[in-house]
Amino acid sequence: MSTDLKLEAVVVPVADADRSKEFYSGLGWRLDADFAFDNGFRVVQFTPPGSPASVQFGTKITSAEPGTAQGLYLVVTDVEAARSELLAQGAKLSEVFHPAAPGAQFEAGDTSGRVTGPADERSSYGSFATFSDPDGNTWLLQEVTKRLPGRVDDATYTSVDDLEAALRRAAAAHGEHEARTGQADENWPTWYATYMLAERTGAELPQ
In whole angstroms, what is the distance from residue 34 CA to residue 154 CA? Predict the structure, then answer.
């Protein structure tokens, strides 16, 4: 038996807490806390939509230089849709891309290793877009549709968009299943459920 160690908050170093608060609020992230103390310590916490983990910044909260948090992951089920939403909220994002070489997604100052457009066949974990906060801390949108085995234990969906996207992928896969079998599948709800659970947990997909 092991004790659960749940990563719930990551500190992002910023130079101006009020400026950062305005930026992350503008993205539509939930403001959880803004506590200031007499000794100058201040902690501000935001949670991205659908995320189990939060980010914190403020004053006297870290010795790291502002802007040194790089490649912070924001996992999405549709990177192009997520990019469009963030653009509408005022963020400045790169085009959707996939790395031509391993690690190219992290080379913020050198984009020569990036290929414009999503990964071939929209392979899970392969498509990205990036943006930065006012201090230069970088965020990395990564499209994940099918998890690696053992990554998660259940098929929790955190938003209507997340669930809708999973249902659409299951519907498309089920259409291919019916084409292969040459007959309508009256037990499609079970097939959908099996597919969606397998996709989310990294198990073998039904055919």
Answer: 33
- Residue from 42, 60, 27, 10 nearest 134 by CA: 27
Torsions phi, psi of 99, nearest 5? Answer: -75, 135
Report the C-alpha gap between 83 and 94 in whole angstroms. Answer: 9
Contact 174, 158 (CB under 8 A): no
Q: Counting Cβ atoms within 10 Å, is residue 76 exposed (0-12), middle (13-18) or buried (19+)?
A: buried
Q: Which residues lie below 8 Å from residue 203, measured CB to CB, with a gap of 6+?
A: 149, 197
**Which helix or strand (DSSP H or E) is residue 63 part of?**
none
The reply to whether the predicted model has a pTM over 0.70 is yes
20-29, 48-57, 100-109, 125-134: the lowest-pLDDT one: 100-109
Radius of gyration of the chain (CA): 20
Compute the Cα dihedral for 36, 44, 4, 158 and give only its sign: positive
Q: Residue 42 forms beta bridges with which residues?
A: 36, 59
